[in-house]
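[User]
Um, tokens okay?
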Amino acid sequence: MSYRHILVAVDLSENSRRIIDKVILLAKPLDAKVSLIFVDESTNDSAFSGLIDLDLAAIEPMHPSLKEFANKLNALVVDTNYTIENQFVMQGDLSARLDETVAEVGADLVVCGHDNGFWHRLASKHHELVNNVSIDLLVIPIDQ
């Protein structure tokens, strides 16, 4: 199967860059577009849910923490040597926001990382993603 647009869900941790690098290795031979998404699930404030454009000047008045998240997301791709089509910072439910963004950008593959630690296995979102994401899902294990 040849993917045309890969949407990468990151958590802004140091492991996010390793996931991005692996996705780029997949995307290059396919000449696929790559977009990134970070979803902040820590707040349920519906006033700030939805897609947030990464125009940093526009983000700050809306929600100060979104600017910090946007800066962290941008720092992950500074020297990737591959064009990142879109960078999204969102709030809300991860699986719902992923599915909305898949439709928005026309992605045909979602990629996320998975830490094999005990607490991550206990609180894993992957089962929910498998049930709710409408396209192919690739979960990349992250080595400790």
